[in-house]
Design goal:
The protein is mainly beta. The protein has one domain (about 20-160). The protein has one helix spanning about 90; strands at about 20-25, 30-35, 45-50, 60-70, 75-85, 90-95, 105-110, 115-120, 155-160. The chain has a four-stranded antiparallel β-sheet. The protein has a three-stranded antiparallel β-sheet with strand order 7-8-9, with no helix packed on it. It has a two-stranded antiparallel ribbon with strand order 4-5. A hairpin with a 5-residue loop joins β7 and β8 (about 115-120). The radius of gyration is 21 Å and the shape is flat. The two termini are about 40 Å apart.
């Protein structure tokens, strides 16, 4: 009996864990998902994902096959459940990835939806204290490591995201 565990259709391009904040855009209806995860960092850093809203009735009934071992015997069965439309990459997509050690921790948009303001908190938080290690190295020097300031201790920041064509973010 094949396992039916990935009902959402998430792939390596849009999988995530530890959602820590949700925010709905007033201009587009997009649900923005912010993550704060120390366990998933073997795959990627914390991130911001965009989820395109569905509509009532876009889902279906599915039967999930399960099996487990109880007192040495394998017990199998099925359970009917209802799910919304499959997410896939068309409905849920990674929008940005935070610097190493950072958390995406809050966002808002301009009234016209053409600028998205995203908070990046404590990048490089696993850097050792200054002067403690002989081979000291910052885990991240963001935002100073990309030519936007003096390289050094990482700092939290708010970034502004705009489209090059001036359109609404996410459309």
């Amino acid at each position: 009996m094949a396992a039916s565990v990935n009902l959402s259709g998430l792939t390596a391009s849009n999988s995530f864990s530890s959602p820590d904040g949700l925010w709905f855009s007033k201009s587009t209806g997009i649900c923005w998902i912010q993550t704060d995860d120390g366990a998933y960092t073997d795959e990627t850093n914390c991130m911001l994902l965009a989820a395109i809203p569905g509509s009532v009735g876009d889902g279906k009934k599915v039967s999930v096959a399960n099996s487990m071992t109880v007192s040495g015997a394998v017990v199998t069965g099925t359970q009917d459940t209802f799910i919304g439309a499959a997410l896939g990459e068309a409905k849920l997509r990674r929008f940005l990835v935070a610097p190493k050690g950072a958390e995406v921790t809050g966002l808002t948009e301009s009234a016209d939806g053409r600028t998205l303001f995203v908070n990046i908190q404590h990048p490089g938080e696993n850097s050792p204290a200054l002067g403690v290690a002989a081979d000291f190295a910052f885990q991240s020097q963001w935002p100073g490591n990309q030519g936007y300031g003096v390289p050094g201790r990482p700092r939290s920041a708010t970034i502004a995201v705009v489209r090059t064509d001036g359109g609404q973010i996410g459309m």
